[in-house]
Amino acid sequence: MSRPAIGLTLVVAGVGLILDQATKAIARGSLQPGDQFPVFGDLLSLTLIYNPGAAFSLASGSTWILTVLAVLATGATIWFATRLRGVWWAIALGLILGGTVGNLIDRLTNPPSFGQGYVTDFIAYGDLFVGNVADILLVAGFAMTGLIILRTSRHPVSDTAGEDLNNLADADRSREVPQ
């Protein structure tokens, strides 16, 4: 793939974002906080919570900081997508972008206030934590990114991901102003 990954990244992000926001709307309309509906025994259930923090409710007193970080992560992901090439990078970045924007929308639009809204979580993984589709997208995107990087480090000459990283470095060097 010779063009930057931005087009496919935006398509993957858009599909993920629609899926995330639709499932959150269904959860808010169908579930009451505290109710638990088993899906797969005690391992997986549906339960509605509103999470002011990050994963595992970390930083729940700093919701606005998480909002700022999500905005920065969105910008960085788009920046990388305009520079990297390849289908795998496009998919990985699209998953990350869809997940980041999905939870960012909650922080911007949900109570208690703009930029400090709670994220709608409804997929309970046993007694470990409760998440949402955006979280699944993020985990899948970062796992895929890790696999691309690992594969690139093992086969830098023959791997297209390695070529993508080399293209990115070449593009940055070509933008340098001669002194």
How would you explain this protein's 3D organization?
There is one protein chain. With 179 residues, the protein is of the alpha+beta class. The chain has one domain (6-168). It contains five helices and four strands, in the order αββααββαα. The chain has helices at residues 6-30, 63-83, 87-109, 133-154, 160-174, and strands spanning 37-40, 44-51, 119-125, 129-131. α2 packs antiparallel against α3 (87-109). It is globular. The mean pLDDT is 83.
Write a short abstract of this structure.
With 179 residues, the protein is α+β, with helices and mostly antiparallel strands.
Structural descriptors:
alpha+beta; 179 residues; 5 helices; globular; 4-stranded antiparallel sheet
Could you give the topology of this structure?
Blueprint (H helix, E strand, L loop, with lengths): L5 H25 L6 E4 L3 E8 L11 H21 L3 H23 L9 E7 L3 E3 L1 H22 L5 H15 L5
Antiparallel strand pairs: 1-2, 2-3, 3-4
Helix pairs in contact: 1-3, 2-3, 3-4
